[in-house]
Amino acid sequence: MVSAKVENDTVKLLKEVTGESKVFVFDIKENIAPAAWRITQRAFEEAYKINADYIIIHMNTYGGMVNMADSIRTKILNSKIPVFVFIDNNAASAGALISIACDSIYMRSGSSIGAATVVNQSGEVVPDKYQSYMRSTMRATAESHGKDTIITANDTIIKWRRDPRIAEAMVDPSIYIKGIIDTGKVLTFTASEALKHDYCEGIVENIPEILEKAGIQNYSIKRHAQTKLDRLINIFLNPVLQGILLMIIIGGIYFELQTPGVGFPIAAAAAAALLYFAPLYLEGLAENWELLLFVAGLILLAVEVFVIPGFGVAGVTGIVMMVVGLTLAMIDNIVFTLDGKEAFSEASRAFLTIIVSLLLSITLSIYLSKKIFTAQRGIFSTMALSSEENSANGYISVDMNYKAMVGKTGIAYTVLRPSGRVEIDDELYDAVSEIGFIEKGETVKVLRHGSGQLYVIKKG
What we know:
By secondary structure, this protein is of the alpha/beta class.
């Protein structure tokens, strides 16, 4: 079996004889997140389009999301074009996994690679089942580069091009490798250590030096340039901003249900939904059916609120479909391969994000609805009456019959959500529920009256 190194050397020799080599360069100088995966996809597409002979990743990262790193790793391992990486300072954690996948690693003096232990968002080491998956992925990535056969005067030695145990030691602090790492420590290589132990092909200061060391003399370099759309999409793929958009979506819908006819809450929710789904769709995370699931849920919820009395199957189904659509849109459907437990974990994290956003949105909506529309102090206080016209000042109700209803009981003629109508003594009155929603047909008691309507509670 011909090693990858021999194949690469053959390609280099042919290009030197036949003409100029095309070198395509793109940057990964950020946390490994959906934006980095999107950049990688676009860069490889462009490299294939121009028939590039080599791809160089200019890297400086402290790591990031394991699923995005695994997607990038798979892209590199399946590449028909040799891929080099230039570690310009850091290739930590997920960055180490991506680097080891490349055909050749070059490092700037003073840079480092390693420390690939899986941690959560708080920086705490996650349980061993996650570490086990990362260990096997790192080991398999190192093994993918094959072995070299070294023939000496006395023996023939078969040696891994990249020792899988070293890759595994970058994840597992219990691994001991004589002369390299003691137990209890996670392995991180400096540039000189990586070069000594075959995890680096050379120490360089720039990309031209990489090409010189690789024996590529006649070449042209093309760099991947992000468009304005790419930069905008990358901004909206930020997990923090996605969380804020989720809160606006859920809060806007809730606010509109509480104050029907206001208009701007549902408009804000629609705009946030567009900004949430559009980047995910363009990036390849959100599929058509996931978008349709969310929209169908929204339609069912609207039908329940405005058409069907009460709150039943349609409303609950609509809410479930919306939550499922939002959750699945956050999960990569393309490259990341997991066992059942890992896939469940990914879905659980996305679902938890949605639920937390939902609870925060409802809480903030209740708080803001009181602050914004308070007559005396609210931001939009000019939209509410600033004074109260009471009987002590000589004001009387247009219909004195409302005053006589205080203390009486009746039946909810419509759903009170919170406004609606009630029937008392065979007469219909406008009413507002003081506490929660009241379903049609339930018995109510009048507590007070004002502004041409009754204020009622459900009678237990």
